[in-house]
Amino acid sequence: MDAIAELKSMSVEDRSKLKWDDPRLDALADKLEQKHELPPSTLKALKWAENTGLKEGKISKSSNDSTAVSPAGAKGLMQIMDATQQLQGGMFKHNHLDPVESLDAAAKYLKYTLTNQYKGNVAAAFADYNGGPTVAKQVLKGKMPSNAETAGYLNKIKEFYKQGK
Fold first, then answer.
1. Where are the domains of the chain?
2. Which of 85, 39, 17 is nearest to 7 (CA)?
3. Which of 29, 42, 96, 111 could cross-link to 36 by cystine, CB 3.0-4.6 Å?
4. d(CA 27, CA 30)
């Protein structure tokens, strides 16, 4: 059985116990990037950025973020806000406890913002994903976001690509 078929055969409860860096979720991310015509590794870069942090200046990794809720209210593997789920008539609505649904919702959102708001500018779409449209517009103008969290987030994504993930 291939990785994606294995994920689909699992219950939501079992999928919610997967670690964020499970290779089966990477395989799904690759498939969703193709399905939604996203640049290669963009979804995996987001997944990595959402599930790693900085501790003492070094990247630290969490073990399981499928059930995590951030202090700001972002939920699940891909840390999507409830308000984001309601955008575009609920287009991004999903069960945040299910990493499969969370990845799919993130792929749809990334595709939507890349296509409809940022004319294919991936850095601006990443900035929007983390800090919203105001900071994304700064990135579109060639500036670093004034929001320190989003600036750090973009640096984490650069680190992901630098490591050749």
1. 3-117
2. 17
3. 111
4. 5
